[in-house]
Inverse folding.
């Protein structure tokens, strides 16, 4: 399978997708090794994981180099690779306490002769399927706590961005105990389907359409499916917000990583009183943003990682214009040396029936809608099949929070935007079509990988069958 380079448009890499038999063989090897891994005391699992963090740092230059080609951007590739050892170290600090807190022993029961203990039993084989927008982060974000929990892990990154896998694998090979229970495979939809059929717990990050297929396959396989899907995040900007500051925040929250982030702000609802100065500031700020072309080490906007995404957005913009929207800046796809780029695009006079307001864009596009009445803004923000996250900007956090709690989404940034990109310790559930299952953030990020086994200890003589004889009951009560 040929792989396209997002900066040149050339197919300059190839993968051989792992087939069903390959996945089954890998799964059975990992599954066989998992009991030994799970039996290690958590302190030892932590030591192994910490050695992996060091190994990733050792291999970081090679991983960053490949991830930069995969994604067409350099600074964010470095942030992604640099972040993973940090994530491992954070979980290493927290995992022992989380296990301790959730596995109490000798707890008195409501039944006076019984004492309870809880054992945490990890799922044997965890599986992850990841998208192309943050390949390194999203391939590892769930696997790391799963490994700390004692699961073996099988990861499949996107076929659009597979180059970083080889150097990442080299870091795993440096830690032989880990290599026994962690494997990363390359492949496309067929590989993903085989993976779902072979694991005991699946974490899927990607589009709603594929998430639905994965959920159906997981139901067939009778395994839990944790789905992290798309979004169309709204930002409500109240009249008490400073329009110039709000414009800067909205721009960053919308176009960081070229808008190719699930938690990007994709709809702006702005109070009429500050609409004009806000729009003016937003356009001015947007026009200062530079492409990271021709020099990859400069500028803020990269090429589309997955070129068809650019065309999808171009179609959304064309439809909006045709229905009367005004493009104030940006709006044209630029093909530069084979890479597909779009400068930050601010669109006014958009309406709720336009695809650019309704459907996920996944690019640097800011449709702006004014409102007179905040109830109207809340109801428009909630008028979406998605419920990933949202944001409210106001003059005070109290005022913003009053609106925040009325929004139907799993995480609301208050006086900032897209905070879930940076804040990983706040548990949040995706609402509506944006996902399903426990939060990947916070403590549940790890506890979801355990089944709880109750050890129910009888300290007296167990009940006898005669105790339940009919004559022992009077009017439904035991004598
Ligand atoms: P996608 O759904 O096209 O693909 C995601 C992964 O699924 C890829 O690895 C692909 O090979 C695999 N796949 C495809 N068909 C499959 C099948 N039938 N069974 C199993 N696996 C299959 O998504 P994408 O285009 O790579 O990523 C963009 C989407 O991801 C956007 O919608 C974005 O919002 C979403 N996303 C969500 C989050 C989140 O945390 N909620 C984070 C990042 C991206």
């Amino acid at each position: 399978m040929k792989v396209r380079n997002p900066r040149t448009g050339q197919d300059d890499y190839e993968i051989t997708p792992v087939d069903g038999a390959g996945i089954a063989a890998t799964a059975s090897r990992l599954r066989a090794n998992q009991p030994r891994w799970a039996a290690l005391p958590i302190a030892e699992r932590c030591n192994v994981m910490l050695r992996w963090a060091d190994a990733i740092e050792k291999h970081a230059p090679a991983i960053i180099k490949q991830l930069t080609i995969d994604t067409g951007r350099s600074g964010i590739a470095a942030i992604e690779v640099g972040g993973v050892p940090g994530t491992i170290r954070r979980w290493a600090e927290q995992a022992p306490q989380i296990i301790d807190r959730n596995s109490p022993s000798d707890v008195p029961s409501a039944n006076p002769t019984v004492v309870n203990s809880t054992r945490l039993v990890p799922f044997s084989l965890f599986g992850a399927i990841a998208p192309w927008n943050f390949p390194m982060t999203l391939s590892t974000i769930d696997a790391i706590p799963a490994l700390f929990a004692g699961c073996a892990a099988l990861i499949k990154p996107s076929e659009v961005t597979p180059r970083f896998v080889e150097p990442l694998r080299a870091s795993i090979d440096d830690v032989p105990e880990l290599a026994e229970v962690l494997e990363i495979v390359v492949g496309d939809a067929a590989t993903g389907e085989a993976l779902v059929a072979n694991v005991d717990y699946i974490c899927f990050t990607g589009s709603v359409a594929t998430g639905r297929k994965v959920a159906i396959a997981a139901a067939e396989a009778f395994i839990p499916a944790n789905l992290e899907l798309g979004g169309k995040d709204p930002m409500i900007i109240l009249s008490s917000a400073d329009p110039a500051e709000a414009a800067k925040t909205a721009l960053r929250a919308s176009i960081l990583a070229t808008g190719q982030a699930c938690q990007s702000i994709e709809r702006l609802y702005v109070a009429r009183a500050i609409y004009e100065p806000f729009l003016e500031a937003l356009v001015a700020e947007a026009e200062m943003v530079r492409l990271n072309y021709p020099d990859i080490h400069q500028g803020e906007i990269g090429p589309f990682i997955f070129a068809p995404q650019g065309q999808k957005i171009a179609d959304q913009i064309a439809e909006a214009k045709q229905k009367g929207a005004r493009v104030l800046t940006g709006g044209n796809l630029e093909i530069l040396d084979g890479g597909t780029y779009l400068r930050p695009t601010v669109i006014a006079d958009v309406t709720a029936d336009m695809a650019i307001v309704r459907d996920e864009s996944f690019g640097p596009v800011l449709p702006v809608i004014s409102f007179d009445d905040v109830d109207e803004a809340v109801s428009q923000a909630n008028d979406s099949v998605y419920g990933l996250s949202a944001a409210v900007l106001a003059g005070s956090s109290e005022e913003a929070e009053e609106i925040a709690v009325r929004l139907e989404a799993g995480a609301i940034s208050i006086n900032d935007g897209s905070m879930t990109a940076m804040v990983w310790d706040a548990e949040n559930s995706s609402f509506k079509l944006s996902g399903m299952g426990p939060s990947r953030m916070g403590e549940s990020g790890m506890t979801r990988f355990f089944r709880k086994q109750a050890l129910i200890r009888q300290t007296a003589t167990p009940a006898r069958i005669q105790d339940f004889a009919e004559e022992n009951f009077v009017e439904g009560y035991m004598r």
The domain at 2-229+433-456 is CATH 3.40.605.10 (Aldehyde Dehydrogenase; Chain A, domain 1).
